[in-house]
Amino acid sequence: MLATLFVVAVAVFIMMRFSGDPVSALAGPDATPEQVAEIAARWGYDRPLPEQFLTYIADTLRGDFGLSVRSYEPASAVFLERVPATLLLGLMSLLCAVLIGMPLGIIAAVNQHSAYDRFVMGLSVLGFAMPNFFLGILLILIFSLYLHLLPSFGSGTWQHLVMPVATLSLSSAGAIARFARSCMLDVLNQPYVASARARGIPGFRRTIVHALPNASIPIVTILGLRFGDLIAGAIIVETVFAWPGVGRLLAASVASRDLAVVQVIVLSTALTMILANLAVDLLYGVLDPRVRRSSR
């Protein structure tokens, strides 16, 4: 985990420094050479890159992520201010995706090769392949401009949450449905499921009690990846709907060359993904006793 975070820290430092001159972006096109030099000295950009990097790593290890060049507030405070909005959007989207995708995938597996199976898989492919920005704009056109049912941007009420959640949920629900169907088909073809069928166990009990727990490990994996992607996956959606979350903050910070805020967001995204993968690894042992036995 520490090695991964260090590599991410090095990568974001290098990419942000070599993707453009932050001093020119801060000073503007009409700044005099004296003003440019003053800005560079104020933010430490006049020092050699190795010295800047060592200072950046040392400050990060102390929990000091620097100041935002836009608000002059600590970058960590600017980031934490936007976290609740992103968590609300991401967790609601993930919950809706699970509630939609899991039942659809399980029922499609039980009714393999049926018209329902083909219909669900077609919807899954459509949802997974449709770009978020296109779906978001389409929902705004239908429900805001034509029907006048929902607000097109902002936050504050549950109506503001409907379209962003729907946009994020669709692609995740499609992926979860496909994974759930594939995993359930593998398990339903196992001998112990056929034995349960021969003993007269009802189909619902066979599916939920016998098959689903054994098919849950790959499904938990994709859920962990989706949870770890809460921040990065919401950038486009938050921008389309002007949702005041971390994703929109990241887009604005990249455009304004606010390096401190970009660095803390990228590191936090990496840490979220790492912790989500760690939680998935630990859940493997809970869901499958064979994993616990093999690790002893």
Automatic annotation (TrEMBL):
Chain ranges of the ABC transmembrane type-1 domain: 83-284
GO MF, any single term: dipeptide transmembrane transporter activity
Localisation: Cell membrane
Pfam families in alphabetical order: BPD_transp_1, BPD_transp_1_N
Assigned GO CC terms: plasma membrane
Major location category of this protein: membrane
Keywords of this entry: Cell membrane, Membrane, Transmembrane, Transmembrane helix, Transport
Keyword Cell membrane belongs to the record: yes
Transmembrane segments: 87-110, 122-149, 161-180, 215-241, 261-287
PROSITE patterns attached to this UniProt entry: ABC_TM1 (PS50928)
Membrane topology: Multi-pass membrane protein
PANTHER family: DIPEPTIDE TRANSPORT SYSTEM PERMEASE PROTEIN DPPB-RELATED
Family to which this protein belongs: Belongs to the binding-protein-dependent transport system permease family.
Protein's name in the database: ABC transporter permease
